[in-house]
Design goal:
Elements: H1 7-10, E1 16-21, E2 29-34, E3 40-43, E4 52-55, E5 61-64, H2 70-86, H3 116-125, E6 128-133, E7 138-143, E8 149-155, E9 158-164
Antiparallel strand pairs: 1-2, 2-3, 3-4, 4-5, 6-7, 7-8, 8-9
């Protein structure tokens, strides 16, 4: 595989330029370039970092720059998944479309009614990563295998509902 070229070198070979804005604390702008070989180049996850992640057309990482940290790679995954969803080509690794917002998460449905403090470890053990919580009792998690956003509503110390959120944007910091 050839080393990754700079975007200036690749500019003449870019078939299309699509821009997605991802809102996060540094207000960086994620840019997705479609290259002539069909791969997708994602940049701009963090202002000034120089991180570039290259994905194949199915959304799998082909290559990532040495300057890319795990947070930037996660943000690139979120951006590419959203882009593929918008293009109508987003399937997870098992060939399934993201569930509709409000759909119960089957892998966690047994935890509804459980004490939040005790059930949180079970959620983590089942492959979910905590992203954030808000003041109204909602916590947001990423499903490990798919990066789907999951919302858990807690009230009076117990999980009241565990559902899929509207999309990856809901799980951004």
């Amino acid at each position: 595989m050839q080393p990754m070229k700079s975007l200036r070198t690749l500019a003449p070979t870019i078939l299309g330029l699509l821009t997605l804005t991802v809102t996060h604390p540094v207000n960086a702008q994620v840019v997705i370039n479609t290259l002539d070989n069909g791969n997708l180049s994602v940049t701009g996850m963090k202002s000034g970092s120089g991180c570039t992640v290259l994905f194949d057309p199915q959304g799998e990482i082909v290559q990532q720059g040495e300057s890319c940290g795990s947070t930037e790679v996660r943000k690139a995954h979120i951006a590419i998944n959203r882009y593929l969803q918008e293009q109508g080509t987003s399937d997870d690794r098992n060939g399934n479309r993201q569930p509709e917002a409000g759909t119960t998460v089957p892998q966690l449905s047994d935890l509804v009614g459980a004490r939040a403090g005790q059930a949180e470890n079970t959620v983590k053990q089942r492959g979910y990563r905590w992203v954030k919580s808000d003041d109204s009792g909602y916590s947001y998690w990423l499903e490990g295998k798919t990066d789907y956003c999951v919302t858990i509503k807690t009230d009076q110390g117990r999980y009241q509902s565990i559902i899929y959120a509207g999309g990856p944007v809901d799980c951004q910091n």
